Amino acid sequence: MNYLTYFSIFFFYKIKQVISSLPDVDNKVKIPEALTPEQYQKVDKLVNNQDYIDYELKDQLKRLGELHSSIGKLTGKESTVNSMEAPVIYLEPPLILPKSQIKTDEEVENFLKKVGLEDETNDKSDDPYKITNIDDAKTTESSIKSKLAKMRKTREDMFKKMRTLSIKIPGDPEATREFNNLKIGLKKLDDALENQIKKLTQVEHVKAALIDLVSGILR
User: Fold this and answer.
1) How far apart are CA 120 and CA 102, in angstroms?
2) Is-contact 202 129, C-beta < 8 A?
3) For residue 156, what are the contacts with CB-CB under 8 A and spacing of at least 6?
4) Who's near 108: CB < 8 A, 6+ residues apart?
5) Could you give the CA distance from residue 12 to residue 142 in angstroms, rounded to a whole number?
6) Which stretches of the chain are DSSP H helices?
7) Which of 92, 105, 186, 209 has its CA 20 to 30 A from that of 140?
């Protein structure tokens, strides 16, 4: 063998030693296998499901904000979504009215008593337009505000539960069913709340009309 042959053998021997001393690359790097059609469907379903949950929670948060705003305008008290974590009671203490307004109210009530319209005081929240005296108006107004407070608290509790369930939904069919049931329940509750808000507005209109009517008679 000549010098070049010896050199070649020695060179390849060294290369083999270097390669054998390297880490086992095959054991360190694994090429992921492609997902099966079933796995693709499962992932796609989870993604779509989470999008649906996110949308529903945002929608309910928006509705809750609108509810707080609507009731806040009627009660004259600021109400925002940021305060929803704490119970809110709408049975507010009586307003401190100007002396002139207090005198007018007393004159109206005294007049209604004289003409026999103050014999009974009933909750006429089913049909506010049947109210014929101030006492009925006050009783009905108080009753509706009490209902609104309870219904709003119920709605906040339902919404909080929806947020809790949304975390469990990806792998919990029972949580999914409960979430959807709550969504249906919230829709019914929203309809009832809207109805009560309309009735409260009607009571305020009737009450104002009664005061204006009797004030005109007393002049």
Assistant:
1) 22
2) yes
3) 64, 84
4) 134, 210, 211, 214, 215, 218
5) 98
6) 3-21, 25-28, 37-75, 99-114, 134-168, 173-218
7) 186
Q: What is the pTM of this model?
A: 0.48
Q: Where are the domains of the chain?
A: 43-75+96-218
Tokens 């407070």 correspond to: 149
Chain position carrying tokens 């499901």 = 49
Spell out a b/e string for 63-94, using b for 16 or more CB atoms within 10 Å of the CB, else e: bbeebbebbbebbeeebeeeebeeebebeeee
**CA dihedral angle for residue 105, residue 111, residue 115, residue 119, rounded to 10 degrees:** 40
Q: Supply the angle between the helices 99-114 and 173-218 in degrees, to the nearest 10.
A: 80
> Is residue 19 a contact partner of residue 125, using CB atoms and an 8 Å limit?
no
